[in-house]
Each structure stands twice: as structure tokens, then as C-alpha cells.
Amino acid sequence: MAFEKICTLDDVWEGEMKAFTTKDGTEVLVVAHEDDKIVIFQNMCPHQEITLGQKGILNENGVLVCTAHLWEFDSCTGKGLNPTDCKLAVYPSKVEGDDIYVDTEGITPEKSHS
Ligand code: FES
Fold it and tell me: Nearest residue CA, atom 1 of ligand 1?
């Protein structure tokens, strides 16, 4: 495990998401839920590898939607909701004080059918 600071709680407000890049160039998507619950996903849609930081939204139900072709993901687990045979990789994360840390070591972004 090699956690590195990726941003702070002030960088991503509750109900929002934002993309960041780790020191080794891995693009991650930080999703901020209620009560400072943070989930960090791959920043690439598994469908056609479009950047979720640009094409992704959190809809009114908290579902992460890639607006390129409307694939939907559970914004807490990364599980595919539509279609269901896909998922987003989840990176281990932690919050210490106001700082958000991520560990991308050994985790490969998911890809899916197209
Ligand atoms: S690239 Fe995301 S749904 Fe197609």
C-alpha cells in the first residue's frame, strides 16, 4: 500500500465528483458523498474509455452516468447499473483531517464490451 494525498475535502464538495492525476499519472475520479464519505474510481469509462471527469455526471439519484452513451454506475460501489455486466475499478482511499488519500498500486482500470 502506498497512499498519496490526491486532494482535500474542500476540492470536492458533497454530491460532486472531480478528476485528479496521481504522481505516476493514474487518472482517478473522486466522488464525495454525505458525511465526508469518499469513493475513488478509475477516471475512464469502461465502455469506450472516455474520461468520466469530462463526460460523467452524478444525477439526482446519485447515479454516476457517463453521458457519452448513458452507461450508469453505482456511485458508491462502481457496479454497473445499466448495463450490469461492467464496473468501475475502486481504489483504496482514506481521509485524514481534510486530506484525501488514494492508493492505485496494483489496480488496473476495468474495460468492458463496446
Ligand atoms: S464511453 Fe461511457 S457510456 Fe460509452
Answer: 48
Going by the DSSP 8-state scheme, the letter that residue 37 receives in this structure is -
CB 9 within 8 A of CB 36: yes
CA separation, residue 41 to residues 20, 36, 38, 62, 113 (Å): 11, 16, 10, 15, 19
What are the residue boundaries of the structural domains of the chain, listed by start?
4-102
Most distant CA atoms of the chain, gap in Å: 41
Helices (H), 8-104: 52-55
> Domain 4-102: which topology?
Rieske Iron-sulfur Protein (2.102.10)
Ligand 1 contact, 90 CB (< 6 A): no
Cα-Cα-Cα-Cα dihedral sign, residues 55, 114, 24, 77: positive
pLDDT band at 114 (very low <50, low <70, confident <90, very high): low
Atom of ligand 1 nearest to the CA of 114: 4
At 80 the pLDDT is 97
